[in-house]
Give the backbone structure.
Amino acid sequence: MMKKFTALILAAIIAALLCSCSGGKTLPDAPTLAAVASGLDFDEELEDSGADIAYSFYGVDEAQCKSAALYKGSSASVDEVAVFECVDADAANAVAALASERQQYLHDGYSNYGPEQVPKIDSGVIKAVGNTVIFCISNSPEKIDSIIDASRK
């Protein structure tokens, strides 16, 4: 019941973003985009972990970002969506490199702990769109582009 309610809320957010889309090139803030992306296909429902956890998990200096968001599954899950709205292109490049390090960290950790998760980690997507960096590990990583396109304001 809770998953259906969450899916309904996410569908409403996506619809609102689509309706507000005017063909421009800007993305919504990090929390909004992460909330929309958390509606992708995951093994379990994701929880909003907040900006502080996003900065901590990725080793990002808060001064590099205007906003950040992290949606994650349980500690036993590799499913996650992180979005960082960076202050400039240099910060976005630095954050993208940190996202790549996080992906490698997960790969290394799950190689022994849960090797069946490694292909999913390796298929994770890191996207930089302007000054926004998105990292997504899901069952449908190829859909992140359509989420980005649908979310543009």
User: Anything to note?
Assistant: The chain has six helices and five strands.
